[in-house]
Amino acid sequence: MPENKQSDLKNSNILFLVSLLIGVVTLIFLPVTPLDRLPILSKTSVLADKNILSFQSTNSYDPTNYLVCSIDDDPEGYNNYGVYHPVDLAITINKLNELNIKHLFLGTHLHWPDLDPQENATLNTAITGLDSCIISVPLRRSVGSIEIPSYLLASSLSADSIHGDLNYLPRVNNLSLAPTFIIPENTQAGFSQLESESLSRKIPLLALWGERVILSSLLLERLHHLNIIPTDIVINMGENIILGDSGNIIPIDELGYFSPSDYPSDVKPDLISSIVTDQKQSPVDTTNSILTSAGLKADSYRTINQPVTQLNQLTLTPVVSEKKIYQPLHFLIHLAALIGIIYLLISNRNLKGCKNLFWIILLVLFSLGLAAVIARSSSYYLVTTHLVIAVLTASVCTFIINRRDDIIANSSKGYVDFDDISNSFKKTTASPVGDLDAKQASKQRKRERKKNASKKTRSNKTI
Known about the structure:
The protein starts with a helix and ends with a helix. It is of the alpha/beta class. The protein has helices at 2-29, 34-37, 86-98, 117-128, 150-153, 217-225, 307-315, 328-346, 353-377, 385-413, 418-430, 438-462, and strands at 67-71, 103-106, 132-140, 157-158, 174-175, 187-194, 203-204, 206-209, 212-215, 234-236, 240-242, 249-251, 257-258, 271-272, 288-293. Strands 1, 2, 3, 5, 6, 14 and 15 form a seven-stranded mixed sheet that branches. 41% of the residues lie in helices and 13% in strands. The chain folds into three domains: 2-54 and 327-413, no CATH class; 67-315, no CATH class; 418-462.
């Protein structure tokens, strides 16, 4: 018995090492397969058609830390010119600059056509004091079209540079709430919403204006934090937007919409613009800020609903690639899953027949189910091909080892002494009566010896 236990332990160790080695080699060197994408086929987005890469080696999916400043209805009357005025907005931007804000995402409209140009010009001066700024304007399709404004044209792309069919892309030819001041050189402009399109939980990222593709201000903000210019991106309609060489890809449908898979909770503002001048120190350690508005009156000044949430959703898009490049921690997570699956299989390797087959199928389904749960609950994706290959490897090796043990066991039960067989064969063939049993054969040989002895005696006497 001790020998059997020792042999069984040795076989288990061999199985474990072989399966682990093949699983690790597959995990590292095998490209992303359709099996890796299978657990996300039920997701409510276009991700199911992509090469999903789990845990790629990049920190770019970490959400940007923002100082959120909100314009309210100013019930106390702190503002100099009312609820929303370019001079008050310029004062807020100057104060944010004093709080070490270098980049600003403006989520409010900048349209005061009835005010004095000098009052509007205060915004130009305030924004110029920042390193960079991104503003938003609503776009629409109307009977009368206008030329693309220069500030939108600067960050747009040629329609010829887009891969795929542009026929489904939303078309625009006009804008609402155009900025009423000269846009500084350090500022990019994108669209905030498409007024001619129906409302959706999806996020529009592209719009076609003549022969140019206009980018969303949210997309421009994402590119800014990846240090990517618009001409560096690759747009595949109905598939994805490849964000330069950052390793990030935003999945889009044929309309240029992104379907978020995560819905972060709303972020409360850190500062209120009407009292920002009293702030001595920034409550958030960052150089990035979002300026938005919220209130019974202030809501009408906002061009993007929940800008922080939408920017975080764009940041948390899964990373997609044809190669698997892992951070050490994430590689250990995959390795732990591999070791766990192999252990579960080998610990029950004595199962036979249908029970063994059912256990193998159960482990494969468990691997795919685990990947599906991770895909549903986070922005990460667990590759599964190496798990399935390890299960199949362990199963085949288990079958071979069990067959070998069965052959050895059957041989030991049917063991025969071939020397005895040889001697018995010789004795049997020497006997003239092959069908007699051993005692009868012995008696027969004695009688024959007596007859031979008596014949020899008579012969001697005759001589």
